[in-house]
């Protein structure tokens, strides 16, 4: 073992942790909208849910679809056909060539069933070490059921998921396994991505999708309190811009 006690993990440990959101980040739509498109929902399920009640709302939507005879295979096909965001296929290609440098995790308020289906269809599932999302799968009757991810005390986030808590716990778990990252890189779009992005340090990079809520919230926080948001901010319209930034990072070796 090396004198620092790093042992075998040392030279081969990935240098960068790359965190992805799913809806409107990896895929170009909100996957919940994609699976209900073209299906007749009753009025009570067409209303937008109250703030923070989205997981509960989707649970009711999926239960209703199950009652109408919509089977998981049909929903899987809907998830598989959601288009990737612009440039995402190119970004995945780059990452597949540099798997020893980047460790990938996905943190999403969608659901594990839809995410796993889409990643497999895109040939990208093996790139991700972990997928953190609301648990979903067929029950004994063959109806897709959905649960909350966890509980937390964050006042900014919906009751079922605080992404900052998930990220902090993951970094702590990896540190216990002697994996410390030089930088955390966070690719997202939504208001619930602003919470974890706010915990990043000056060494880290936030990649908000241009013009989406995460981007607007970062801009507002920078105006209100310059310096409070510490990470470098690299907005993107196409994930090719993220890929370009990562290539530069690899070239710099820092």
Automatic annotation (TrEMBL):
Substrate binds at residues 32, 109. InterPro entries: HAD-like_sf, HAD_hydro_PyrdxlP_Pase-like, HAD_sf, Pase_PHOSPHO-typ. Pfam families: Put_Phosphatase (PF06888). Keywords: Hydrolase, Magnesium, Metal-binding. Mg(2+) binds at residues 21, 23, 189. The active site is at residues 21, 23. The keyword Magnesium applies. Its cofactor is Mg(2+). It comes from the Eukaryota. One of its GO terms (molecular function) is phosphatase activity. One of its GO terms (biological process) is bone mineralization involved in bone maturation. Belongs to the HAD-like hydrolase superfamily. PHOSPHO family. This is PHOP1 phosphatase. It comes from Spizella passerina (Chipping sparrow). The gene is Phospho1.
């Amino acid at each position: 073992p090396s004198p620092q006690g790093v042992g075998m993990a040392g030279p081969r440990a990935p240098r960068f942790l790359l965190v992805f959101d799913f809806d409107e980040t990896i895929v170009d739509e909100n996957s919940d909208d994609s699976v209900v498109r073209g299906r007749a929902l009753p009025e009570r399920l067409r209303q937008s849910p109250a703030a923070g009640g989205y997981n509960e709302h989707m649970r009711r939507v999926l239960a209703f679809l199950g009652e109408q005879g919509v089977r998981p295979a049909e929903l899987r096909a809907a998830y598989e056909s959601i288009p990737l965001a612009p440039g995402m296929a190119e970004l995945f290609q780059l990452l597949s060539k540099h798997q020893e440098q980047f460790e990938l995790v996905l943190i999403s308020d969608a659901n594990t069933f839809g995410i796993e289906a889409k990643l497999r269809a895109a040939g990208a599932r093996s790139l991700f070490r972990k997928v953190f999302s609301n648990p979903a799968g067929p029950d004994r009757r063959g109806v897709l059921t959905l649960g909350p991810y966890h509980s937390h005390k964050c006042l900014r986030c919906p009751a079922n998921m605080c992404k900052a808590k998930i990220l902090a716990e993951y970094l702590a778990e990896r540190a216990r396994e002697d994996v410390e990252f030089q930088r955390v890189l966070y690719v997202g779009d939504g208001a619930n991505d602003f919470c974890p992005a706010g915990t990043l340090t000056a060494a880290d990079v936030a990649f908000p999708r241009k013009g989406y809520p995460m981007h607007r919230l970062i801009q507002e926080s920078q105006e209100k309190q310059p310096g409070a948001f510490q990470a470098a901010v690299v907005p993107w319209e196409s994930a090719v811009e993220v890929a370009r930034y990562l290539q530069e990072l690899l070239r710099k070796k820092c």
